[in-house]
C-alpha cells in the first residue's frame, strides 16, 4: 500500500490574534480527519496596520505599537535560524500562553515558550530588534497578496483543481470544531472558497473565543 498523499494547507498566522488561534486549533483537528498537512507561515498585524493607526482607538493603537511586533519577530527569526518546521510548535507554545493561560505578551512569556520547544532563549531578544523585519515583511506579503489588504489573520491557501492556489481569510469560528465537525467545516470551506466569484459569508459575532 502507498501512503495517502496529503494536501498542503499553507497557514499564515500572527500569534497575537485570538481568532487566528481558534482557527489554527481547528486546523490541527483537520489534520487528524482529512489528508491535510498544515505548513505554518508568519504574517503580522503590526505590518498590516502600520498605516492605519490613526483610524484605531487608543487601546488598539497601543497594542499595535507595543505588543504586536515582538512575537512575530521572534517567530520569523526562529524560522530563519532553525527552519520553518519550528513554527508550528512555537506557535502552539506562544498561543497557549497568550490565549489559554492569559499570560502577558512579554519577554518572560516568550522565553518560556522558546524553552518549551527547545529553542534558544536569546531569540526572545529579537522582539526588540528590526534585524529580521525584511523577512517578516516578505512572509507577510506572500500571504496577504493572495487575498488582498481588506482582511487579517489567518490566511489559508490550498491547491485548487486547476493547480492554482485557493486562498481565503478565516474561517472565524468558536469553539474550534473537533472530529467530524472539523472535517465538515473543512469540506464546506473548500467548497465555497473554490467557487468562482465567491467572496464572503459573514454574520455578527455574538460570542468571544472559547479556549478549550
Automatic annotation (TrEMBL):
Q: Which InterPro entries match?
A: Rv2466c-like (IPR053977), Thioredoxin-like_sf (IPR036249)
A Pfam family assignment? Rv2466c-like
* Gene3D superfamilies xref list: Glutaredoxin
This protein is called DsbA family protein
